Amino acid sequence: MKNSKVKVLIFDVFGTVVDWRSTIKKELNKFLPLNLNKKELNDFALEWRNGYTDFIGKFNDGKVKWKNVDKIHLDKLKELLESKELLTSMDDENILEINKLWHKLDPWNDSVEGLRKLKEDFSIGTLSNGNFSLLLNMSKYSKLNWDFIFSGDIFKKYKTDEYVYRKACQYLDLNPSQVMLVAAHEGDLNAAKKLGLKTAYVNRPLEYSNLPNINNPKGFDYTATDFIDLHQKLRKNNT
């Protein structure tokens, strides 16, 4: 019988480990040559991020060629700036500086301490569509002490393509049952679960909107309120 004890935790990053929405909204007005109100900031941040999710969908449908997340974000940023008649008034350096906001996202309150605790018992790393330099800069900025980084430019594919999860297990030289994906997104977890990975859903109530959205999905190995809670549950049950 294959060993099914979990040895490695791989983490979705955007929304699971870091609070992209609040960070982008907080920082945008420092760079844009106009002051957006709260609703406008939220709409801008959401539309910017939706450019990424839309591109992933098109790629997975075979409609566009692969490019890294920095380039996806940059192209969408230019599109948004043009729609607000700001593109021609901003130089390339300023636009690139805005795009680098994604490299400096604030972690959720429990993330740094929770990862530290989880690292006592497991190897921990990312499984993110983000590019390597983005994730490296973010880990430095947010003090995310990963053992390794799996990024989109390693695989040249995006989650939820099964190749990403399978290849991650191969790189780790582990059976899927020895690897656990930790994420706040059910689609990500369901894709991993189909391939035999263990799964842990972490609820991030403010991931999708300004209003708390408490979700307790069924069908995953663990459901946790945060990384501290997950650490306690894994320490109790992963024997």
Features:
239 residues, alpha/beta, Rossmann fold, DNA polymerase, domain 1, 2 domains, globular
User: What is the count of DSSP helices, taking H or I runs of 4+ residues?
Assistant: 10
Q: What best-fitting shape do the alpha-carbon axes yield?
A: globular
Distance between the termini: 16 Å
Helicity level, as a percent range? 40-55%
CATH class categorisation of the largest domain? Alpha Beta
Helix/strand structural class: alpha/beta
Major sheet details: 6 strands, parallel
| Uncertain parts | none
Task: Tell me the CATH architecture of the largest domain.
Answer: 3-Layer(aba) Sandwich
Which range does the strand content fall in?
A: 5-15%
Describe this structure in words.
The protein is an alpha/beta fold and 239 residues long. The protein folds into two domains: 8-19 and 107-237, Rossmann fold; 20-103, DNA polymerase, domain 1 (Orthogonal Bundle). It contains ten helices and six strands. The protein has helices spanning 20-28, 38-60, 69-83, 92-99, 111-119, 132-142, 152-155, 162-172, 186-194, 227-237; strands spanning 8-11, 123-127, 148-150, 179-183, 198-202, 222-224. A six-stranded parallel β-sheet has the order 3-2-1-4-5-6, with helices on both faces. Strand 4, helix 9 (186-194) and strand 5 form a beta-alpha-beta unit. Helix 1 crosses helix 2 (38-60) and helix 5 packs parallel to helix 10. The longest helix is centred in the N-terminal third of the chain and has 23 residues, at 38-60. It is globular. The mean pLDDT is 92.
